[in-house]
Amino acid sequence: QVQLAESGGGSVEPGGSLRLSCVVSGFTYGSYCMGWFRQAPGKEREGVAHIEGNGKTTYIDSVKGRFTISRDNAKATLYLQMDSLKPEDTAMYYCAAKVLCRNEYQFWGQGTQVTVSS
Known about the structure:
Number of helices: 0
Largest sheet: 7 strands, mixed
Oligomer: single chain
Strand content: over 45%
């Protein structure tokens, strides 16, 4: 059974940092494409960052230079380092996985809340 479990969310002031983690189990983690998504109240879910099995990464423009996605295959863990956080980053953050990078994401975690406010 595939499971993804996020942690690391919380409340921070603008300009602060958080690191999200996503522990995965139930599949050969190192070969999967992984991603972080977020959804704010009243808005559609958006893909924030993605990382392929070979380490190639992509980001949406609004987080480039501030967020860093990484993976530790030995620990079967995905990370999202978020720096210089802004109020507009406030959302529920989800990690996701898929077997083939060209396909839709198949597996999702339950989410962790990130709130940025003063």
